[in-house]
Structures are given as C-alpha cells and as structure tokens.
Task: structure prediction
Amino acid sequence: MSILNKYYRFFLNIWSPTVAFFVLTIIVATYLYSEYQADHANTLRLQSILLADELRQSSDDLTRMVRTYVATGDTLYKQHYQEILDIRNGKLPRPIKYENIYWDLVLEDDRRPRQNSEADPLLKRMQRVGFSKTEFAKLEQAKTNSDILVNTENAAMALIESTDPINDANRLKAIQMLNDPDYHQAKASIMRPINEFYQLMEQRTQAVVQQSNRTATILRMVFIAFTVIWVITLKAQTAQSKQAEKALADSDSLRELLLDIITHDLNNPAGVIYALSESGRKRLPENRIMETIFTTSERLIEVINQTTILSQAAFGETIPKEALSLNTLIKETVDEFAASLSAAEMDLVVTMSPDLIIEANPLIAEVFKNYISNAIKYARDGKRIVIETAIEDKAVVVCVNDFGRTIPKADRERYFRTQGSA
Result:
C-alpha cells in the first residue's frame, strides 16, 4: 500500500502543475480573445458611424451646392454638386480622409484640402463592413431617397438654365422648389432611415461589447482566483516534506512564493509578448492583428499587476499608494460607461469638490466601476445615478446613489453579512 501511495504522490506532483498550467493557458487565451472581440466590435461600430455620417453629409453637401448655384448662377457650385454625386457613386476618386471636413473648405479658388485616393462607391464600402440585412436596408433606403431628391435638384438647375440670361421669375421658382415643404419632406425621408440605422447599429454593437466585457471581467476574476488557488495548491503539495512543512509555518515564505510566481513566472512571459508585439506594431503600424496583440498583452500585464496588489492586500501587506486626482479618476471611470449609460437611457450626474487629491492605489477605480456597473444593471428603472463627494474629518467620502428599486430592509443583513472578523 505504501508503494502505491508513493506512485500516486509522484503522479500527483508531476501532473497537477501541468494540468493547472494548461487550464490557466486556456483561461488567458479565452480572455485575450474576448478582449479582441470587444475591440473588434468597437472598431466596426466606429466604421459604421463614419459610413452613415458620410451618406448624411453628402446629402447636406448636395443641398448646399444646388441652392448656392440656383441663387448665384455660379457654375462652380454645379460642378461641385456633380462631383459629390460621382464620388459617392464611385465614378470619381474619393479624397483621402473624405469622412472629415472637406467641402466646407473648398472655396471660390476651388483648391482642395487633400489629395484623392481610389474610386470606391459608398454602397460597396457599406457592404464590406458587414452590416446586418436590416441595417443595410436602412442605409440603402436613405441612399435611394437621396438619389430621388437629385431629380428635383436637377429640375431646379435646369429651370434657371432654360433662359439666357437667367430669368428672375425662373430663379425664384427654382429657389422655392429647393425650400418648399415637399423638399424638406424629401430630406426627412433621407435622414429618417439613417437615424433608424444608428439605433439598430448601436443596439447590436453595444450588445456585443457588453457581452465581451462581461466575459472578460468574469475571466479576469477566474484568472486571479485560479492563480491564487494554484499557488496555494503547489505550496500544500510541498508540505509533505519536512522542509516544506517548516516553510509553510512561516507566512512570509508563502507570501513571497505567491508574489514571486505572479511577478516572475507569469509577468515575464507576458512582458516578452508585450515587447515583441510593440516591436511588430512599430514595423507594421497598419496591421490590426498586431495592434490587438499589443493592446491585449498590455491589459494582461495590467491584470497581473492588479493580481500582485490584491495578493499583497490578502496577506496583510501594505499596498503601494500614490497621489491621485480623484476628479480625474472618477471622470475617466464615468467616460468608460458612456455607451452603457446611453443604452440604458440613464443620466449620470457628478458633483465634486474641485482638485481633490487622495493617497490611494489606482486599483481603487475598480470600486467605482463596480458601483456604476451594478447601478446600470439593477437600478436602471431609476433613470439616474448621482456621484457626490464630501470631506469629513480629513477624509474624502464618495457617495454613489442610484434611484432604482432597493433591497428591502429586512433582507439587507442577509445580503451584506460578512464572514470572519472585521
């Protein structure tokens, strides 16, 4: 029986760390993938907004050009009008960074703010982004309605060109065609589906981002918990020898072992990945995969550093503190939840004393994130979150108030009962 126990212990000592490392690798890989999914969803969201905004802007630019041409008779504006149409339809090259301000900078001298790239129809670029069928249908409807309005605008231009010189009566009639209720109704028929597209796209991408963030948060907690359990398990296995039993009696040894594994065995490989991805990012600045590896490895190092701090706190060690601007810390935290607050239709009001400096670890931001996240999840019916600060007895007090349904007083002791000594 003793021989079997020896073989069993040998097998357990060899394979337990291997299996634990394999599981930890899977957790980290899944965490990195969830971070990539969130980044990818945010990138698609930005591209979608830019494309829809380009369609909206082209419609407004066409209106401005045709109205100016009819009012002044200057053929330069008619030329610009046709050019806007041809760029949108892929008949002319598209200017570089066309989604930024462009036609507002083209004046009487016809000088262009940027050079052209290649012709690329707007609808084809929308198809490449990968909108849902419903979303694409909304933009396609807006594009079709804009093309229909072009007929009215062409008719107005043709009217003033029917006489030479331009007849004042025809000019007045053309101006009325471009400003009457029918014209404004036609403009609304363009903007309405674009607005509906924004809502559909926001719901879809926000759902993906929220799910990815939830997954990342869960995996981050699992990673921290599993790392601590793994370290404690390894330490418990070595307790079978006299030397390990003596080491276990000293809590400082356990703390040093835990921190050493976190700061070296995990942080060093993550640092190598970060350094390599940073080098690759400089060589391939346009490579999205390299950019994703860089940002996710940066976040992994941040998680490991947070784990180190939490481990220090768990063993009663004083965690490092620094002077922090509480105003900046809360503002950055609130900004992270802007999309979630918009989706939940909630307002967040911050009332703070100016220039509040505190001595704390930056990890304290997680406390505020937890309060705001819970308020969005469970108290959205209150429609409002208020963050207030006050100074009491040389201490800064931060209150996060929501106005949703609260826990009954009779149940609060059961929910908030703590274990162990205070």
The longest strand covers residues 384-392. The CA atoms of residues 152 and 177 lie 8 Å apart.
